[in-house]
Amino acid sequence: MTPLLQVKDVAKMYGVRIGCTDVSFDLYPGEVMGIVGESGSGKSTLLNCLAGHLAPDRGEVIFDTRADGPVDMVTMSEPARRMLGRTDWAFVHQHARDGLRMSVSAGGNIGERLMAVGDRHYGDIRARAADWLGRVEISDARIDDRPSAFSGGMQQRLQIARNLVTGPRLVFMDEPTGGLDVSVQARLLDLLRGLVREMGLSAIIVTHDLAVVRLLADRLMVMKDGHVVETGLTDQVLDDPQHGYTQLLVSSVLQV
Amino acid sequence: MSDYNFAYLDEQTKRMIRRAILKGLAVPGYQVPFASREMPMPYGWGTGGVQVSAATLTPEDTFKVIDQGADDTTNAVSIRKFFERTAGVATTEETEKASVIQTRHRIPEAELTEDQILVYQVPIPEPLRFLEPRETETRKMHALQEYGLMHVKLYEDISQHGAIATSYAYPVKVSDRYVMDPSPIPKFDNPKMEMAAIQLFGAGREQRIYAVPPYTKVVSLDFEDYPFEASKADHPCDLCAAEDSYLDEVILDDAGNRMFVCSDTDYCRSRREAGHVGRLGEEAAA
User: Fold this and answer.
1) Cα of A219 to nearest chain B Cα, Å
2) Catalytic site residue B46?
3) Which residue numbers in chain A have pLDDT < 70?
4) How far does the CA of residue A164 sit from the closest CA of chain B (Å)?
5) B275 an active-site residue?
6) Could you tell me how many CB contacts below 8 A there are between chain A and chain B?
7) A173-187 as b/e: b if 16+ CB within 10 A
8) Local structure of residue B37 (DSSP, 8 states)
9) pLDDT digits (tens, 9 = 90+) for B190-241
10) Using CB atoms, which residue from A107, A111, A116 is nearest to B146?
11) How far apart are CA B44 and CA B79, in angstroms?
12) Can you tell me the distance from the alpha carbon of B263 to that of B242, in angstroms, rounded to the nearest whole number?
């Protein structure tokens, strides 16, 4: 099987400081990869390099496109990369405000990607927006409300609906549950897990919350100071951490 | 002739503007940046249109200015006087006799010919501005033809009002390439933009010039199930009985009486001279 995403020796420097370096992994279709680490460990830098928001200084990010097979995203032309960003890829931001258009209604937010890929039938767009609102457990009576009238958890779910409406194959998530209270987090995780399984999505989830990766991720990558210190199956890494930093991380979780 | 250089601007400036105009004509709908000059009138009064007119006018031209279709409003009168004084060109109120027409918010009702140039005054040239405030981003969107966002605006219209409520500055796609703001003309005028005359657009404050060459394809954006409609008040003109012209609504008193009149004053006058009389036409003449 061809990996959906092959990352080879990616590095990003901020001047003399290391953003992230020597990162290599393969992601197969339907697989969810978790990246954990403390603040400043380079996990968001890595995610932005993979998603094409930052240009890595070194390395290759090879994505298995539907049309042309494996293509290096780093050297790909910008229009093609942006097109992928609207169709096969999705990016869920930590703050829903960064990923939503706050002055546009919920339906318009979900419909934007459809219109961006050439959908020009209002009735169809609206029907699909209503369908996706239902799938992320938002009442379709709220379809014409602006996201600013939504709670934090609803905004995050709306952001997910807006990203998944074009049926992407790879989802990047940057702290998708950050800033939400625990019961809302639990519902969101439940929803995400359902969608990932149901749509067969591949995902890369960056988080500092080990509970999130325990629930969602098949595989785990632990980062510290821009380097990958440990990788493996999620349960294996969390239950039997080998690296000193991973041991610290696992033992730092409060037991209630 | 006065002590002004012909048409107020110096020759180097006009040269710079003409280069922008030529580039605009070569790439229909593309917003060409230009070094907009300070003009002796406030921004919002047509400083862009005036600069384009100044660069376009020759001493042999006949100049006409309309503001919302009318020749006799403050904006039109002052710009006409400005060029009478600084360029000494002949001016007219008759659409057919003019070779350069500067307009604010209307296209004349009479069909324009290949010998004419229509200059629009543009307040905000960027059609994507209210959806995407970053200029770097809108330029990239134009470059990559990412125009999905324009339809988000129309979607919002339908979801809020049940129909596309945008009635002026209705976005168009020019020559299957660039999405363009046609300046705040009513959408009734949009179909007329595929015309024989050259159309030039000047935005002074925003420092942009763009153009539509003659006989260029101009398509108003819409949805398959909500097609574009060139709407106007469903009424004949009360002075000249015209059924096909764009109308202004005039409140007559506080008892609910109103009249509809052609916004194009020259068109209305010429029709009344030809003997057409509307509902209130006799009283107005008396």
Assistant:
1) 36
2) no
3) 256
4) 17
5) no
6) 55
7) bbbbbeebeeebbee
8) P
9) 999 999 999 999 999 999 999 999 999 999 999 999 999 998 889 999 999 9
10) A116
11) 13
12) 11
Interface of A with B in 137-156 (CB under 8 A): 143-144
Residues of A within 8 A of B226 (CB-CB) are 122
Read off the tokens for B101: 């027409």
* B250: Cβ contacts below 8 Å, ≥ 6 apart: B258, B259, B260, B261
Q: Is B29 among the catalytic positions?
A: yes
At B249, the amino acid letter reads E
Quote the pTM value.
0.87
Q: What is the rounded CA–CA span in Å between residue B244 and residue A183?
A: 63
| B35 burial level (CB within 10 Å; 0-12, 13-18, 19+) | exposed
Instruction: Report in angstroms the alpha-carbon separations of A143 from A46, A92, A130, B114.
Output: 35, 20, 7, 49
Rounded-to-integer distance, Cα A211 and Cα A255, Å:
12
| Rounded-to-integer distance, Cα A31 and Cα A39, Å | 25
Contact B185, B230 (CB under 8 A): no
Residue numbers of B between 102 and 131 with CB closer than 8 Å to A: 131
C-alpha–C-alpha distance, residues B209 and B55, integer Å: 12
Q: Best interface-test mutation with A: which of B152, B176, B225 has the largest number of A CBs within 10 A?
A: B152
Relative to beta strand A170-174, strand B198-203 is unpaired
CB–CB contact A112 B159 (8 Å): no
Residue type, A239: D
DSSP state of B183: -
> Strand, helix or coil at B118?
strand
A53 shares contact with chain B (CB less than 8 Å): no
- Alpha carbon dihedral B149, B150, B156, B161, in 10-degree steps, equals 180
The per-residue pLDDT for range A144-170, each reduced to its tens digit, is: 999 999 999 899 999 999 999 998 999
Quote ipTM for the complex.
0.86
